Amino acid sequence: MSGDRVALYLQDAHPIRDGMRYVQYAEARGFEAVWQAESRLVRDAIVPMAAFAAVTERIKVGSGVVNNWTRNPALLAATFLTLDDLAPNRIICGIGAWWDPLAANVGITRSRPLTAMREVVTVVRDLLAMKRVTFHGEFVHVTDIELDVVHGRREPRHVPIYIGATGMQMMELAGEIADGVLLNYCVPPEYNDAALEHLEAGARRAGRSLDSLDRPQLVVCSVDYDHERALDGARELLTQYLAQQPHIAQASGVKPEVVQEIRGILGWPATKEQIHRAMRLVPDDLVERITASGTPAEAKAKVREYVAHGCTCPILYPLGDVQLMIDTFAEGYTAS
Q1: Please, which residues have CB within 8 angstroms of residue 111's CB and are 6 or more apart in sequence?
Q2: Cα(238)–Cα(217) distance, rounded to whole angstroms?
Q3: How far is C-alpha 72 from the chain's CA centre?
Q4: In the prediction, which pLDDT does 336 show?
Q5: In this structure, how many other beta carbons lie within 10 angstroms of the beta carbon of residue 228?
Q6: C-beta neighbour count of 80 within 10 angstroms
Q7: Blockwise average pLDDT, block size 10, the chain, 336 residues
Q8: How far is CA 144 from the centre of its chain?
Q9: Summary count for the chain: helices (H), strands (E)
Q10: What is d(CA 219, CA 79) in angstroms, rounded to the nearest whole number?
């Protein structure tokens, strides 16, 4: 393994036990972390994170991301304390603001998301520092609580908090209060330029520099020795995400009329048949612009673009041959 930082991203594309084997293989090949998604109503992050932590020794395990609306901050802190008990100093708390229409469809009103995120992060961090906390804000109300560890380690837990940000206001908040930012996927590399400007503005408010903030980034990665087959592997995912996650569609730069046409075909949740019908609307140049898809050399070249635009650690979401992707990036990506 070269000195290039690289991590693995898993969602729901693989059975959990297959994911456990992939994480073990990634660890053996020098990957520094695995991040488990929690986005659609399909697979929560915590159970797979525990499974990955239980079968590894070194690799870091992060949530990519849990949201700040559906778990009380006291429960969030207790959950990540528990994960840290399982894998001390290897757990990362990635937390995001969720998205509509999914949040609205389950009864969550995402009003004042910046205030809500600030309050949750503040309380979770203080609890994991083993402080006794009273906090009464607009969204979070806790009175005289602490993580009540009787049997086990009572020292402060080293669980860094990363905010999964796509919009620029949330990016600034991440720069101000988080240990790092989890940059989103399905965006072109140049999206990062504006994102880092806002991240730096937030960091300056807290007396910090941009270089003090870790900036890992999710990257859809479809690797195949057949270029066209690799692109088709990513196209299916893009079709679904452009229709269902408006913040990603906006950040990707896709024309709104294309997104609307895709949405006109896809239901909620989308069926495989609907996705395949809509895939024709996602051209090759879009796949190549916002994912790292193609032959091993092409995928590595694209990842280098994200790194050149400020990503500190690509977090690769494998579509297709997972072992081939891990092997490709275990050999590094900065050398051409």
Answers
A1: none
A2: 17
A3: 20
A4: 56
A5: 10
A6: 25
A7: 86 96 98 94 96 98 97 97 98 95 92 97 98 98 97 95 97 98 95 98 98 97 96 90 77 83 84 88 91 97 98 96 97 81
A8: 32
A9: 14, 12
A10: 27
Residue 40 burial (CB count, 10 A): 16
- Which DSSP symbol is given to 270? P
Q: What angle do CA 328, 333, 335 make, to 5 degrees?
A: 120
Distance (Å, rounded) from C-alpha 78 to C-alpha 83? 9
The dihedrals phi and psi of 56, each to the nearest 5 degrees, come to -130, 170
End-to-end CA distance of the chain: 15
DSSP per-residue codes, 153-219: --SPP---EEEEE-SHHHHHHHHHH-SEEEE-SSS-TTHHHHHHHHHHHHHHHTT--GGGSB-EEEE
Asked whether the beta carbons of 110 and 97 are under 8 A apart, the reply is yes
Per-residue model confidence as pLDDT tens digits over 304-335: 999 999 999 999 999 989 999 999 999 899 86
Residue with tokens 């452009």: 242
- Of 293, 286, 291, 306, the C-alpha closest to 224 is 293
Q: Looking at residue 82, what is its pLDDT? A: 98
Give the pTM.
Answer: 0.92
Q: Quick one: 318 exposed, middle or buried, by C-beta within 10 A (0-12, 13-18, 19+)? A: buried
Tell me the C-alpha distance between 180 and 216, whole Å.
8
Rounded CA-CA distance 240/179 in Å is 31
Of the candidates 262, 260, 245, 252, the residue with the CA atom closest to the CA atom of residue 102: 245
The domain spans of the chain are 7-226+291-330, 227-290
For residue 185, give the amino acid letter. Y
Q: What is the CATH number of domain 7-226+291-330?
A: 3.20.20.30
